[in-house]
């Protein structure tokens, strides 16, 4: 993926002032992140803006996540700030391969980023959200479990609930939860992996219970892809009052970001559905939730 950095430079050339690399020192380690502000930010000097943290997958970089997901375009349309953090060794601590409590303090790094963002930008503290792909999606779920007072909602792509997060989940606060998972994902399995992470459906049930949502799940909405697209999306959503839970099952979908350009990831990780645009779906979901 390193070859994609030159493409990133070209992609961002028309918005040189809107995407900036920032850094801070957390626990004696210099940590970096990209902040993208929409053009509307400078046009509304008294307005506070929502923030979406977008965490990269394992082995990826913050720049590659920005290029692959193309969330900056959605930020322009809907007027929010996007933050793309960089993980140490291109990873996030979700209890896989490192100690959950004694490993890299990515939760503390996220808190430090949020504190600095509040100093440097006009942040709407009631509308702070997180999303991510794969390891980044697992980590977004950890943030939902550990920092529910700061995040109004999260969305994970290709990342059901990690067992280490479930085992350490003691916070009672409710968080809006959107889950997107492909049935043909060979990297993170839809049916889950014993002792590692729950299935997509069990994750949906877990957060419904946590958010106090009772009763049977509603009838799903079916969203077929365009002509020539073998995928389709089944949409289940339940709950109100700022604590909804939704599961979007991508039939025949791979370990991919719905609606993204597969060229920008450059790996054979399955089909990318065109039935939905993950960024638009996320923002629609996020906009219903405030702290």
Give the helix/strand class.
alpha/beta
Main sheet, how many strands, which sense, barrel? 10 strands, mixed
**Separation, N- and C-terminal Cα atoms:** 36 Å
SSE series = HEEHEHHEHEHEHEHEEEH
Rg calculated over all Cα atoms: 18 Å
Strand tally, please? 10
- Quaternary organization: single chain
Strand order of the largest sheet: 1-2-4-3-5-6-7-10-9-8
Beta-strand percentage? 15-25%
Per DSSP, the total helix count is 9
Low-pLDDT runs of 5+ residues are 1-16
Give the overall pLDDT as a whole number: 91
| Coarse morphology | globular
Proportion in helices:
25-40%
Element layout with pairings:
Elements: H1 4-12, E1 19-26, E2 29-36, H2 40-43, E3 49-55, H3 62-69, H4 71-78, E4 81-85, H5 106-120, E5 123-133, H6 135-146, E6 153-157, H7 163-168, E7 176-182, H8 200-210, E8 221-224, E9 232-238, E10 245-251, H9 278-286
Parallel strand pairs: 3-4, 3-5, 5-6, 6-7, 7-10
Antiparallel strand pairs: 1-2, 2-4, 8-9, 9-10
Helix pairs in contact: 1-3
């Amino acid at each position: 993926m390193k070859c994609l950095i030159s493409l990133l430079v070209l992609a961002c050339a028309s918005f040189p002032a809107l995407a900036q690399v920032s850094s801070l020192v957390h626990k004696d380690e210099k940590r970096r992140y990209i902040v993208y502000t929409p053009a509307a930010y400078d046009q509304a000097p008294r307005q506070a803006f929502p923030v979406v943290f977008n965490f990269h997958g394992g082995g990826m970089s913050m720049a590659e996540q920005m290029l692959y997901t193309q969330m900056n375009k959605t930020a322009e349309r809907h007027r929010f700030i996007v933050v793309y953090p960089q993980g140490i060794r291109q990873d996030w601590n979700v209890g896989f391969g490192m100690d959950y409590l004694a490993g890299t303090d990515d939760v503390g790094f996220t808190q430090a980023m949020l504190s600095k963002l509040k100093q440097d930008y006009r942040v709407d503290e009631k509308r702070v959200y997180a999303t991510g792909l794969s390891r980044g999606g697992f980590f977004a779920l950890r943030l939902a479990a550990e920092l529910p007072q700061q995040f109004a909602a999260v969305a994970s792509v290709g990342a059901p609930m990690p067992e280490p997060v479930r085992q350490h989940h003691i916070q009672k606060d409710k968080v809006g939860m959107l889950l997107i998972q492909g049935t043909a994902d060979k990297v993170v399995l839809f049916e889950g992996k014993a002792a590692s992470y729950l299935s997509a459906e069990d994750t949906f049930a877990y957060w419904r219970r946590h958010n106090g949502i009772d009763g049977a799940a509603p009838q799903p909405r079916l969203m077929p892809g365009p002509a020539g697209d073998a995928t389709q999306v089944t949409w289940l959503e339940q709950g109100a009052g700022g604590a909804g839970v939704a599961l979007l099952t991508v039939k025949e979908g791979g370990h991919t970001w719905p609606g993204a350009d597969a060229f920008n990831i450059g790996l054979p990780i399955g089909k990318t559905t065109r039935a939905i645009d993950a960024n638009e779906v996320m923002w629609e979901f996020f906009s219903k939730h405030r702290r």
